């Protein structure tokens, strides 16, 4: 997407920022909503099965230790 096109899209969405509904608001039928929901669930279920990287685990442990120090005062 070019910068001009992106700016134009941003202006269009800001122009309708008054909370008014357009007569042509996009809607998805229930079958499409279900299909998208199923695909998102499958994608995130797979992600949730992956182990937490060691680096993140170490950071979480450090945060826990710092929180316990702060909480004991």
Q: Rough shape? A: elongated
Radius of gyration from the alpha-carbon trace, in angstroms? 22 Å
Distance between the termini: 53 Å
Following the backbone from N to C, one meets helices and strands in this order, namely HHH
Residue fraction in strands = under 5%
Organism: Microvirga lupini
Pfam families: NepR
InterPro entries: NepR
Protein name: Anti-sigma factor NepR domain-containing protein
Can you give a write-up of this model?
This protein has 73 residues and is mainly α. It has 3 helices and no strands. It has helices spanning 3-15, 30-48, 54-71. It is elongated and about 55 Å long.
TL;DR of this structure?
The chain has about 70 residues and is mainly α.
Write a concise keyword list for the protein shown above.
73 residues, elongated, Anti-sigma factor NepR domain-containing protein, NepR
What's the helix and strand layout?
Layout: H1 3-15, H2 30-48, H3 54-71
